[in-house]
Design a protein that fits this description.
Helices cover about 45% and strands about 15% of the residues. By secondary structure, it is an alpha/beta fold. The protein has one domain: NAD(P)-binding Rossmann-like Domain (Rossmann fold, 3-Layer(aba) Sandwich), CATH 3.40.50.720. The chain has a 7-stranded parallel beta sheet, sandwiched between helices. Helix 2 links the parallel strand 2 and strand 3. Helix 1 packs parallel to helix 2. The longest helix has 29 residues.
Length: about 250
Protein backbone atom coordinates (compact mmCIF):
# COMPACT_ATOMS: atom_id res chain seq x y z
CA UNK A 1 0.00 0.00 0.00
CA UNK A 2 2.93 2.34 0.62
CA UNK A 3 5.03 1.32 -2.39
CA UNK A 4 5.69 4.19 -4.82
CA UNK A 5 7.74 2.18 -7.30
CA UNK A 6 7.10 3.37 -10.84
CA UNK A 7 5.70 6.72 -9.74
CA UNK A 8 7.29 10.12 -10.22
CA UNK A 9 7.35 12.97 -7.74
CA UNK A 10 8.20 16.65 -8.22
CA UNK A 11 9.22 18.62 -5.13
CA UNK A 12 9.54 22.40 -5.30
CA UNK A 13 12.13 23.72 -2.88
CA UNK A 14 13.25 20.11 -2.58
CA UNK A 15 16.95 20.83 -2.27
CA UNK A 16 17.06 21.42 1.47
CA UNK A 17 15.23 21.55 4.77
CA UNK A 18 11.68 20.21 4.89
CA UNK A 19 11.58 19.89 1.10
CA UNK A 20 14.53 17.52 1.05
CA UNK A 21 12.93 15.54 3.87
CA UNK A 22 9.77 15.19 1.79
CA UNK A 23 11.83 14.21 -1.27
CA UNK A 24 13.68 11.57 0.74
CA UNK A 25 10.36 10.12 1.86
CA UNK A 26 9.23 9.69 -1.74
CA UNK A 27 12.61 8.26 -2.75
CA UNK A 28 12.74 5.74 0.10
CA UNK A 29 9.27 4.51 -0.92
CA UNK A 30 10.50 3.86 -4.47
CA UNK A 31 9.49 6.97 -6.42
CA UNK A 32 11.67 8.78 -8.93
CA UNK A 33 12.11 12.38 -7.80
CA UNK A 34 12.62 15.68 -9.60
CA UNK A 35 14.03 18.32 -7.27
CA UNK A 36 13.15 21.90 -8.23
CA UNK A 37 15.02 24.86 -6.79
CA UNK A 38 16.90 28.08 -7.51
CA UNK A 39 20.34 27.06 -6.22
CA UNK A 40 22.22 24.80 -8.65
CA UNK A 41 24.76 23.63 -6.07
CA UNK A 42 22.07 22.70 -3.54
CA UNK A 43 20.08 20.98 -6.29
CA UNK A 44 23.10 18.85 -7.21
CA UNK A 45 23.76 17.92 -3.60
CA UNK A 46 20.13 16.90 -3.08
CA UNK A 47 20.15 14.76 -6.24
CA UNK A 48 23.33 13.02 -5.07
CA UNK A 49 21.71 12.27 -1.70
CA UNK A 50 18.56 10.85 -3.28
CA UNK A 51 20.55 8.72 -5.72
CA UNK A 52 22.54 7.36 -2.79
CA UNK A 53 19.23 6.03 -1.48
CA UNK A 54 18.81 4.11 -4.74
CA UNK A 55 16.30 6.46 -6.32
CA UNK A 56 16.23 7.92 -9.79
CA UNK A 57 16.64 11.65 -9.26
CA UNK A 58 17.22 14.78 -11.30
CA UNK A 59 17.03 18.52 -10.67
CA UNK A 60 15.56 21.48 -12.50
CA UNK A 61 16.05 25.19 -11.93
CA UNK A 62 12.84 27.09 -11.34
CA UNK A 63 11.40 30.44 -10.33
CA UNK A 64 8.15 29.36 -8.70
CA UNK A 65 6.69 32.88 -9.00
CA UNK A 66 6.84 32.70 -12.81
CA UNK A 67 4.08 30.83 -14.64
CA UNK A 68 6.40 30.17 -17.58
CA UNK A 69 9.17 28.82 -15.37
CA UNK A 70 6.74 26.59 -13.49
CA UNK A 71 5.29 25.23 -16.74
CA UNK A 72 8.82 24.48 -17.96
CA UNK A 73 9.57 22.70 -14.68
CA UNK A 74 6.61 20.37 -15.11
CA UNK A 75 7.39 19.80 -18.78
CA UNK A 76 11.00 18.92 -17.95
CA UNK A 77 9.85 16.42 -15.32
CA UNK A 78 7.54 14.65 -17.76
CA UNK A 79 10.18 14.74 -20.46
CA UNK A 80 12.76 13.14 -18.16
CA UNK A 81 10.61 10.53 -16.42
CA UNK A 82 7.68 10.07 -18.79
CA UNK A 83 4.98 10.92 -16.28
CA UNK A 84 4.12 12.89 -13.14
CA UNK A 85 2.15 11.35 -10.28
CA UNK A 86 3.04 13.39 -7.20
CA UNK A 87 3.42 17.16 -6.85
CA UNK A 88 4.82 18.53 -3.61
CA UNK A 89 4.37 22.30 -3.34
CA UNK A 90 7.01 23.07 -0.75
CA UNK A 91 8.83 26.21 -1.97
CA UNK A 92 8.40 29.10 0.41
CA UNK A 93 9.90 32.18 2.00
CA UNK A 94 9.32 34.53 4.90
CA UNK A 95 10.05 38.20 5.52
CA UNK A 96 9.41 39.09 9.15
CA UNK A 97 8.23 42.53 10.22
CA UNK A 98 5.41 44.14 12.12
CA UNK A 99 2.27 44.59 10.01
CA UNK A 100 2.03 48.36 10.47
CA UNK A 101 5.39 48.85 8.73
CA UNK A 102 5.28 45.91 6.33
CA UNK A 103 6.36 46.97 2.83
CA UNK A 104 3.97 46.16 -0.04
CA UNK A 105 6.81 44.66 -2.09
CA UNK A 106 7.65 42.25 0.74
CA UNK A 107 3.98 41.29 1.07
CA UNK A 108 3.80 40.49 -2.64
CA UNK A 109 7.04 38.48 -2.51
CA UNK A 110 5.80 36.26 0.30
CA UNK A 111 2.35 35.74 -1.20
CA UNK A 112 3.77 35.01 -4.66
CA UNK A 113 6.35 32.53 -3.39
CA UNK A 114 4.16 30.69 -0.88
CA UNK A 115 0.62 30.87 -2.26
CA UNK A 116 0.56 31.82 -5.92
CA UNK A 117 3.30 29.32 -6.72
CA UNK A 118 1.16 26.54 -5.24
CA UNK A 119 -1.65 27.43 -7.63
CA UNK A 120 0.67 27.78 -10.64
CA UNK A 121 2.36 24.43 -10.10
CA UNK A 122 -0.91 22.65 -9.39
CA UNK A 123 -2.42 24.01 -12.60
CA UNK A 124 0.60 22.98 -14.65
CA UNK A 125 0.68 19.51 -13.13
CA UNK A 126 -3.08 18.83 -13.31
CA UNK A 127 -3.31 17.19 -16.77
CA UNK A 128 -0.47 14.80 -15.92
CA UNK A 129 -1.81 13.97 -12.46
CA UNK A 130 -5.24 13.33 -13.97
CA UNK A 131 -3.85 11.21 -16.77
CA UNK A 132 -2.02 8.88 -14.38
CA UNK A 133 -5.18 7.96 -12.50
CA UNK A 134 -3.79 8.32 -8.99
CA UNK A 135 -2.49 11.89 -8.78
CA UNK A 136 -1.32 13.31 -5.50
CA UNK A 137 -0.76 16.92 -4.49
CA UNK A 138 0.92 17.62 -1.14
CA UNK A 139 1.05 21.27 -0.11
CA UNK A 140 3.29 22.69 2.59
CA UNK A 141 1.24 24.93 4.85
CA UNK A 142 2.19 25.97 8.37
CA UNK A 143 0.90 25.90 11.91
CA UNK A 144 0.66 29.68 11.43
CA UNK A 145 -2.52 28.93 9.49
CA UNK A 146 -3.92 27.99 12.92
CA UNK A 147 -2.71 30.89 15.06
CA UNK A 148 -0.86 34.18 14.62
CA UNK A 149 2.48 35.74 15.48
CA UNK A 150 3.17 39.50 15.43
CA UNK A 151 5.98 39.42 12.83
CA UNK A 152 4.38 36.90 10.48
CA UNK A 153 1.30 38.59 8.98
CA UNK A 154 2.24 37.92 5.35
CA UNK A 155 3.54 34.44 6.04
CA UNK A 156 0.48 33.47 8.07
CA UNK A 157 -1.87 34.90 5.44
CA UNK A 158 -0.09 33.02 2.67
CA UNK A 159 -0.16 29.73 4.55
CA UNK A 160 -3.80 30.15 5.54
CA UNK A 161 -4.43 30.63 1.84
CA UNK A 162 -2.56 27.41 1.07
CA UNK A 163 -4.85 25.50 3.42
CA UNK A 164 -7.99 26.92 1.80
CA UNK A 165 -6.59 26.37 -1.69
CA UNK A 166 -5.93 22.75 -0.71
CA UNK A 167 -9.60 22.29 0.16
CA UNK A 168 -10.81 23.88 -3.07
CA UNK A 169 -8.48 21.82 -5.26
CA UNK A 170 -9.45 18.66 -3.38
CA UNK A 171 -13.12 19.23 -4.18
CA UNK A 172 -12.50 20.30 -7.77
CA UNK A 173 -10.19 17.42 -8.66
CA UNK A 174 -11.59 14.47 -6.72
CA UNK A 175 -13.41 13.22 -9.82
CA UNK A 176 -10.07 13.30 -11.67
CA UNK A 177 -8.61 10.74 -9.29
CA UNK A 178 -6.43 13.37 -7.59
CA UNK A 179 -6.10 13.84 -3.84
CA UNK A 180 -4.90 17.17 -2.46
CA UNK A 181 -3.69 17.43 1.10
CA UNK A 182 -1.67 19.81 3.22
CA UNK A 183 0.93 19.42 5.94
CA UNK A 184 1.34 22.00 8.70
CA UNK A 185 4.94 21.99 9.91
CA UNK A 186 5.70 23.23 13.38
CA UNK A 187 9.07 24.52 14.56
CA UNK A 188 11.56 22.58 12.45
CA UNK A 189 15.35 22.90 12.55
CA UNK A 190 16.09 24.47 9.14
CA UNK A 191 18.09 27.41 7.78
CA UNK A 192 15.03 29.66 8.08
CA UNK A 193 14.37 28.83 11.73
CA UNK A 194 18.04 29.06 12.66
CA UNK A 195 17.93 32.66 11.46
CA UNK A 196 14.76 33.20 13.48
CA UNK A 197 16.51 31.88 16.58
CA UNK A 198 19.37 34.32 16.04
CA UNK A 199 16.89 37.18 15.70
CA UNK A 200 14.73 36.04 18.65
CA UNK A 201 17.00 34.58 21.37
CA UNK A 202 14.12 33.38 23.54
CA UNK A 203 12.55 31.37 20.73
CA UNK A 204 14.50 28.17 21.26
CA UNK A 205 13.53 27.69 24.90
CA UNK A 206 9.94 28.80 24.28
CA UNK A 207 9.51 26.18 21.57
CA UNK A 208 10.93 23.42 23.74
CA UNK A 209 8.71 24.43 26.66
CA UNK A 210 5.51 24.30 24.57
CA UNK A 211 6.26 21.22 22.44
CA UNK A 212 5.04 17.99 24.09
CA UNK A 213 7.68 15.97 22.23
CA UNK A 214 10.31 18.17 23.91
CA UNK A 215 12.41 18.92 20.83
CA UNK A 216 12.54 20.82 17.58
CA UNK A 217 11.43 18.93 14.51
CA UNK A 218 13.86 17.59 11.94
CA UNK A 219 13.40 17.41 8.15
CA UNK A 220 13.56 13.62 8.54
CA UNK A 221 10.25 13.84 10.40
CA UNK A 222 8.58 14.57 7.04
CA UNK A 223 9.71 11.47 5.21
CA UNK A 224 6.85 9.32 6.52
CA UNK A 225 4.04 11.80 5.91
CA UNK A 226 5.26 12.32 2.33
CA UNK A 227 5.31 8.60 1.58
CA UNK A 228 1.92 8.09 3.22
CA UNK A 229 0.04 10.92 1.50
CA UNK A 230 1.55 9.98 -1.87
CA UNK A 231 0.64 6.31 -1.53
CA UNK A 232 -2.45 4.20 -2.17
CA UNK A 233 -2.85 3.95 1.60
CA UNK A 234 -4.12 7.55 1.55
CA UNK A 235 -6.40 7.16 -1.47
CA UNK A 236 -9.52 8.15 0.51
CA UNK A 237 -7.91 11.10 2.30
CA UNK A 238 -8.25 14.48 0.62
CA UNK A 239 -8.63 18.13 1.58
CA UNK A 240 -7.11 17.76 5.03
CA UNK A 241 -4.40 19.74 6.83
CA UNK A 242 -2.19 17.59 9.06
CA UNK A 243 0.03 19.20 11.72
CA UNK A 244 3.57 17.81 11.90
CA UNK A 245 4.70 19.73 14.95
CA UNK A 246 5.37 17.42 17.89
CA UNK A 247 2.10 18.55 19.45
CA UNK A 248 2.97 22.27 19.55
CA UNK A 249 -0.35 23.42 18.08
CA UNK A 250 -2.53 21.48 20.54
CA UNK A 251 -1.09 23.19 23.59
CA UNK A 252 -3.14 25.98 25.12
Amino acid sequence: MFDLTGRVGLVTGGNGGIGLGLARGLARAGAAVMVAGRDAAKNAAAVAELRALGAEAEAVMVDVTSADSVAAMVARTVERFGRLDILVNNAGTNIRNRPEVYRPEDWHTVLATNLTSTMLASQAAWPHLKGGGHGRVINNGSMLSIFGLPLHAAYGASKGGVVQLTKSLAVAWAADGITVNCILPGWIDTELTRKARRDMPALHDNVLARTPKGRWGDPADFEGIAAFLASDAAAFITGVAIPVDGGFSIQG
